[in-house]
Amino acid sequence: MGARRDALIAALYGPVGWPRARRVAERLRGHLPPGASLLDLGAGTGHTGALLARRGWAVTLADVPPHPGAWGQRLIAQPTARHLARHFGLVRVLTPGALPFPDAHFDTVLLAFVLHHCPDLRAVLREAARVARQRVLVLEDVSVDGQRPGPLARTLDALVNLEAGHPHAQRSHADWLHLFDELHLTVQAEEGWTSRELGMPTGHTLYHLRPPGR
Questions:
Q1: Angle 47-54/2-28 helices, nearest 10 degrees?
Q2: Closest to 93 in 3D by CA, of 70, 126, 60, 45
Q3: Neighbours of 179 (CB within 10 A)
Q4: Burial 14-49 (b: 16+ CB within 10 A, else e)
Q5: Contacting residues for 54 by C-beta, under 8 A, at least 6 apart
Q6: What pLDDT, on a 0 to 100 scale, did the predictor assign at position 162?
Q7: Which whole-number Å values give the CA distances from 103 to 6, 23, 68, in the listed order?
Q8: Sheet holding 37-41, edge to edge
Q9: Residues in the chain with pLDDT < 50?
């Protein structure tokens, strides 16, 4: 019964999840060597990881158990990710703390619009850098002029994710760069673009980072 429910939720959310995954994958295309291993950290619904797996990458999905106010994670993202992991034969781990992988285990670690949901960004980035062999790819919302997203954008983000108690850990472009430098993550490339989420111009940036010592 649980698997059937997961499949139904995944089917209902597919018209939203797959187009969004395709947009993310298009941004990643120039930063991912073909056939590499990839950890989708904070995988959410799992659509991006599943799409990359279909295109030849060896993908593992990882996430944390949802906190009490994370209704979107509990009702939509977790069931959908369970179904996609089963359907595509992907490894999926759910862990609240350190990742259960050795150092430099994955060619790439992907954090797609994840860090601003994290109460402790530094701990998450440190773990991402620890298990990454070649690169950490971070996609984050940054306003069109490089500033921290304003109150309206943060409210819309919480509504879209059906999340109460949202961390509001968004940063400006300069703040992200400072954080990466603090953790000895070297920015290899960055790419900014604008989308229209719910009709509102929303700025985004992709940071291609090299882990320390790699």
A1: 70
A2: 60
A3: 16
A4: eeebeebbeebbeebeebbeeebebbbbbbbbbbbb
A5: 88
A6: 57
A7: 33, 30, 31
A8: 91-94, 58-63, 37-41, 106-112, 132-141, 200-210, 186-197
A9: none
